[in-house]
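Good morning,

Both structures are done.
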Amino acid sequence: MFASYFINAKIMTYAKTDAFDSDLQDIARIAKTLSHPARLAIIKYLAECNKCISGDIANELPLSRTTVSQHLQELKNLGLIDGEIDGVKICYCLNQKNILNARDKIQSFFNLGFSGCNC
C-alpha cells in the first residue's frame, strides 16, 4: 500500500509536457536552460571571446569548477555550446546554428499577436 501511494503520486505529478506542441516544448527547454544567470554569463563570455576557449571558464565566474562544469553540461545538452576534448583540456565554443535557432524560436513566440494588445 505504501509503495502504491508513491506510484500514484508520481503519476499525478507528471508534467505532461508531451501534451503541448513541439515548438512550445522547444521554447520551454530553451527557457529552462537559460534560466540561470551563470549559463547566460557563460554564453556571453564565449560570444565576447569570439573563439573556442580551452582554458578554465570557471576563472571567469564566481562559482566553483564543479558548478561551472554542471552549467556547461546543461548548455551542451541543449546544443547551445560544443565541447571537444583537446588533450587534457576541453575546448568550448558557441554552436552558432543552435544559438540562432533558439533566438528565432523565442523571438517568434513573442511576436505572436501581441503587437495589438493594449491591455
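Second structure follows.
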Amino acid sequence: MAKKFLYINRKAPHGTVYALESLEVVLIAAAFEQDVSLAFIDDGVYQLMRNQDTSQIGVKNFTPTYRALGDYEVNKIYVERESLEARGLSQDDLMPLTWEDEDEDWAEKDSIHVISSQEMADILEQQDVILNF
C-alpha cells in the first residue's frame, strides 16, 4: 500500500520560496502516483486566495498552477477554518479548485475542504510522511 504524504503549507505565498517549492514538490510526487494531500494552516491560507496580483511586488504569480492539482489527482486539500477566521477570510475568498471523479461520470467536485483544527489533527495522525513548508 502506498504511503500517505501530507504537505503542510504555513507561509504566505510570496516573499519566500516555501510556497512555490511546496507546490513543485507536490506536483512531482503526484506525477509519480504518490498519495498526496495538502494542508494550509496559519499564513499558508493566503496561498489559495482568489485573484492574486503580484505585479506591484515584481514576482511571477505562480498561484494559477494550483488549478493543475486536480489533473494530477491531488484532491485532498485541507484548509484550517481557524486560520481563515483569524485572518478575516472564508472559503469564498479562496480560489475554486476542482477535480473530476471518473467513478461518477466525470462529475466535477471541490478539492478544498475547510476543516476544524481538531479535524486537521486527525488527518495529521493518519499520515505516514509529513513535510512542512
